[in-house]
Amino acid sequence: MTNPKKSVILPRMKTNAFTIFLLIVLMISVYIFTFPASFNRGVDFVNEKTVLTLEKVPERDFAQGLDLQGGAYLLYEADLSEVPPAERSRRMEGLRDLMERRIDLYGLAESSVQVSGERIAIEIPGAHDLEEAMNIIGETPFLDFREISPEKEEKQNEKWEEIEKHLGKERGEIEIEDLLMLGEEVEDWGIVLEESFEKTDLTGEHLESAGVSLHPVSREPVITLEFTSEGAELFAEITERNVGKNLATFLDDEILQVAVVQEEITGGQAQITGGFSTEEAYEIARDLQIGALPVPISPVAQQSIGPELGEDALESVITAGLYGFALVAIFMIAVYRLQGLIAVLSLAVYVLLVSFLFKNIPVTLTLSGIAGFLLSVGMAIDANILIISRTKEEMQKGKSIPESVEEGYQKAWSSIRDGNFTTLMVAVILFFITTSFVRGFAITLMLGIIVSLFSAMVISKAVVSFLAEKLPAKKEIWN
Question: Which CATH class is domain 306-477?
């Protein structure tokens, strides 16, 4: 006869108390990182009065979209008349990525680039100079091939010899930390870190096509290039003088890829190998194709949007949200008493968590995005109402408060799950098939739904279960 396996029963109240303690610590941390001004003032006080040197939490504003802070709206149309129909979608995707790179290069945050058919809509919040914005993104993409500059290479080799002699190390052993320690001991040592490529006469207009195929032996993706007759002659000359050296491709003055020339290549056809993944190979080939057959873009509409309208609308939305929250709080507490109060506290925590995510992901807030957030607030309180109703039904059956709470959450979960899941599916669909402001609505709604489930099924449940065990006999405050 075997001995039955022993199990350990832990006190539920202690578990819930510890959970609540962790949640309180989490909420304090979230508040500090979301609204750090008060914490940083405390840090300044401590640093002034003591020998401590505490670090401040970085402060930053919520990212605001075009309709809130104003900016530039630009609409371009691409000329696809020379592009085969099967290639047009991929070409437009490449143009979109190119525009995003151009905008990122200038540090224009929270910008949006959306493609619809043959048109590209670009929103640049905070950019009120239309001419400057158009200069940044309004040029046809330019592709060129660059080789190592012999003069620059010679100077770098001479400087490397000087550095090797000074440090007593071979070039392959020298780390960036070693170079930084040189200071002024080796004059102009930074030249070894400078780009050594110089332009050739070979540009995108000489590249007839770029594609992807599989290597006949390794079966790895390779990028194939085919040049025009003039391009084939230029490419043969360049590869002949650069055997064993790097040859780089630049798109809009940014390195697209660098490859080592193995031998002189004649005939106008070449391939680039390098252990690419299939996705990487297609992305590089697409960008090469964009530069090979430039897609001209022409402006269709430009508009400078001032921030005044957005400021007024934001103030109205915040005011409406506060009034709505207050009315919901009054209703929940008046009708559902203790459970209503807990639901309101859970809702406040929900708002704090969502604010933390919006600021730190970051999510670019638009008026439609704020509307999605407010809608998710309604769904968050709806989940609490379902739970409270189920809990009351169990109480009416004569069950104890802790049992009723546990049963209430279990029975309400299926309805909460299905309702939120269907809304989440709609939000995902909106995100992938729409653009601009509707996509902002979808993002905030998705985040709101996920956090609302956490606040209702984790935070509220922990607090309600703890109080149910502490106040099991006082049914009047639960009904």
Answer: mainly alpha
